[in-house]
Amino acid sequence: MQLRAILSAKLTMDNRRQTAFKMQNKNQEKKEISKATLGMMFGSLIMGFLMLYSFAFGVDFITKLTFFTTMFIFIMCITLITDFTSVLIDVRDNFIILPKPITDATFVASRLLHITIRSFLIILPLTLPAFIGVVVMEGISVVLPFMLMVLMSSLFSIFLINAVYILILKITTPSKFQTIISYIQIGFTILIFAGYQILPRLRDNSLIAHTSMKDLSYIQYYPPYWFADGCQALTKWDFSGSSLVSLILAILVPMVSIWVVIRFFAPSFNRKLSMITARTEEQSKVVVKSRKKTSFFRPEKLAALCTKPGSEYMGFLFSWRMMGRSRDFKMKVYPSFGMILVISVMFIFKAPWSESLDSGSVNGLLVNVLAIVYLSSLLLTTALSNLPYSEKYKASWIFYSAPVESPGKVICGAVKSVMVSLYFPIALILLLVAPLFSGPGILPNLLLGLTNVFLIGALNAYLTVRKLPFSSVLDGSANGGTFLKSMLLMILLGVVGVIHWLISGYLWAVLFLLIMSILLIWIIFNEIKALSWDKLS
Amino acid sequence: MRKFDATKTSKNKNLYSMEPIIRIQNLNKFYGSKHVLKDISIDIFPGQVIGYIGPNGAGKSTTVKIICGLLSDFTGEVTVKGIDIRKNPVDVKALIGYVPEMAELYDVLTPNEFLSLMGALYKMPQDLITERTTRMMDAFGMAGNMDQRMDSFSKGMKQKVLITSGLMHNPEVIILDEPLSGLDANSVIIVKELISKLAQSGKTIFYSSHMMDVVEKVSDRIVLINEGKVVADGSFEELKQNQDKNSLEQIFAQLTASESMHEASDRLMNAFDI
After folding, report:
1. Domains of chain B by residue range
2. How far is A361 from A353, CA to CA, in rounded Å?
3. Assembly ipTM
4. Range 81-120 of B in CB contact (< 8 A) with A
5. CATH number, domain B6-257, options 2.60.40.1120, 1.20.810.10, 1.10.510.10, 3.40.50.300
6. The whole model's pTM is what?
7. CB atoms < 10 A from the CB of A488, how many?
8. Do A398 and B117 touch (CB under 8 A)?
9. What local confidence, expressed as pLDDT, does residue B164 receive?
């Protein structure tokens, strides 16, 4: 009874979660599935279609199914990490549910069930395309085995993530826990991105195209294979070979592991999770060793270098620190960082153009380098578009109660800090590495490219960043005007890139444009600084 | 409402002058269709300590935010030292020190970083900021925490940082919204004494709170607001005479309760009698 009460409350909260709460609009009390949940399901459906790709691998049913199961478990794990975090580390439970007389087992069971129900809403659309696919491949007899397999592999994924969580909690402190989870999520996102680049090439690899999973001796130890094998065994009603073993494993292992989690891991897990709340004053009074600051790259020095003293200097320092420490900002921006890295690597090793690295031509490398430079400006775009938003947006009252005459200066400092912290490292690396490959002749063009990126970044900032940094709530409401502006900027980026490539051979043109570019940047920054309160949105 | 006579209530008669330092005239504020502030008019004179009390939802925080320049959508006139807050908000803000109630902070920052930011926004030079904030936070017993991120701080610690941030630029007008909220007993005493001493040195203090006993002792003059209107304005002595009650709590109850408090507590107990 307690279980039902907790679950119904949490599911209702889920439904209401992402709808923007407006005071006047009190009609949003739908108890059925809300738009947020539907959107999530639709996204899963798209993902499900993409997963059909796994069926392109291999020769027989079992190979395809194993690939599919692997992908499935991988995606489930990623989704679960996000979900788990928000469900397991619901700090409010510490104050609302735990003080009431509930056993640890009930509590953990409620959380697991909550996750299970939410996962179900994702799994259904996710596996639907594949479901249809396997029915097409093997006929109607595969229906029940497939559903069983999906269920079991889901439970297995839940157990896996649980185990990972417990492992992390054992190794580090609860407060670092959330940071690590965020980094794992970022890592996964980048992995998926890299995967979608690499997998097509793997498929064409003849070795994989002609083997079957069955031929690999060590495959028996691979859990997704158990699920695939068991599914196939049930479908064809053929329990020869290792199939029976696989089937038993596929059913037993998930169920036993979940039971183990509830019975044995629950208490210590709960205790550690409940420690992830604000520490008391006594704990805080223990003087923490102040982090050793490298005297070299102290943000204060950088700020003094790039900005004028006063509001601009402060805007720089403020955003620099917030960017470096704000988990939600990092979560939104760092994946882009990783993706750009992946793209760059791909460009270097597999240039789609006929001029390849082997020919040693300056032109070939130049195209690659320019492509990397201009594409990486997308990183700046992402970061700038996220700059005004933060979970802690209410703290921006300080900018309104203090006598700030020109908010534009604060914004300008913030924009500069974004450019310096995110783009400078890339620029530096390119400036140092590229000449090594193709001589110092590449430098003017490289400089022009980098300056153009800063220019477009500054323009982007001037047009779209009309709010103080970290001062607004991100409510997902896509602003039509900003979208158009972003599109325009993308087109501009392309145009500038092409023009640059066209004039790249003419040194005088390059140098001239370089000076123009720098001048324009200076002008735009001045315009940003001049933004007054009424120009802010 | 009797016309308020400042000469009788200002504790600092030396610093008393005829010109109000804060002048609120016919202030009206709507949230949508809700009429939150109804024709508020108050004149505050330099060196006074105003206790601004009222039940929840009466409009206290709204008034405070308007005076501080955080809300600009209102009708009526609000001037600080003769400067209209709508025409010249920046000049007004420079004169005011605002200590909000348990406000949200950018708590990934350390107190040093946060106070440095605040000070810069008030155009203080860096060394002055460092000097003052070190002294103030040291007085609060937080010298060892200046380089710790505030996300590990308790409520009281954050409130101390907030108090420091509101006073560090030595403003003439200090506006406090429940400043003692979350503080431990020692710090409450420190802050109460601080308020008296600030008043004695000539600062004007606008103190909004629920805590009647503190307001009683600290204020020269008490303004009671209910449902957006001023229902009482005078010294504690005057109010006691008018309402024929002995404590501020009783006066408050008499002027604001729509339902007898005793009835409410009886009904709560009755919930158990099933």
Report:
1. 6-257
2. 13
3. 0.83
4. 89-94, 96, 98, 100, 103-109, 113, 116-118, 120
5. 3.40.50.300
6. 0.74
7. 13
8. yes
9. 93
